[in-house]
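FIELD: query
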Amino acid sequence: MKAAVCEAFAKPLVVKEMPEPSVGPGEVLIRMKGCGVCHSDLHLVDGDWADGGTPLPIIPGHEVTGVVEKAGEQVAGLKPGDRVGVPWMQYACGVCPACRSGAEMLCAAQKTTGVTVHGGYAEWVKAPAAFTHRIPEGLDLVDAAPLLCAGITVFSPLRRAGNLAGKTVAVAGIGGLGHLGIRMAAAMGAHVVAITRGGDKKDLAHELGAHEVIDSGKEKAGKQLARIGGADLILLTGISAQLFEECIPGLGPNGTLVVLAAIAEAAKVIPAALLTGQKRIEGSVIGTRNDMDAMLTFAADHGIAPIVERHPLSAVNDVLERMRRGKIRLRAVLTP
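FIELD: result
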């Protein structure tokens, strides 16, 4: 099979022939139809996570969609021809404190698609059936690929927040995560405020379902949010410590700021600012398998799909370079 392989960090991927995976008990073999290119893939390839236990060579990619070709022994519920997706989480132990508390995505023994086991930058992918998800018929297999990471990342905190009808949800950053956050929050009945810098994405934000758009380049986002009463929930999807700091004053009473972006810069927080109104700051990473299935159903029911660029697998290094330069429009998906 053709695959794009990371043989050394900070080097271009090598597109070459690799052996087709053989499936064992409890596993399925999937013919890849689409694999999203996530910013996490760039961190992996560029060596930012070189000390994270990734074995080399590795096939990256954790937003995989395709069709089941073979099912191994002991596989129940999946058969050849089924439309499926393979996400970031490919194994959780089920017995550690995180798993037992219902947070399996925090399992220390977790196996990660495209990071610790081979992923979706290939014509064929194998995965445990227990961590493989059905893709509803209402979703296009290629366009749906980023839902396996970006979609679940924004859906999980929205779901945890409970009934959002009539509440104010702000989405800070209109990119690969943010554009899905706007659509999902709007579909849940929230009053959605999009936060972006400059006016170039204002029309897009309204098309996605935002009721208001704040230009953080004109005035600090928090001040503008506070002026309209504050947000019940803010999804921070932009990789900016400055934006993080600016959003905190925009929280309303009992409001929550959820950090979804991997911001590596230091940020200043004045703890006293959280006391008035009992404001909260929390992080959120992907979600459980139950969250994933609920998200895929929700997306199909509401016609929510990522906005993607499609590129052939052979162009993977060009796609990664465009991502480094910030030239990808929202999401990119590789096809075989």
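FIELD: remark
DSSP finds ten helices and 17 strands in the chain.
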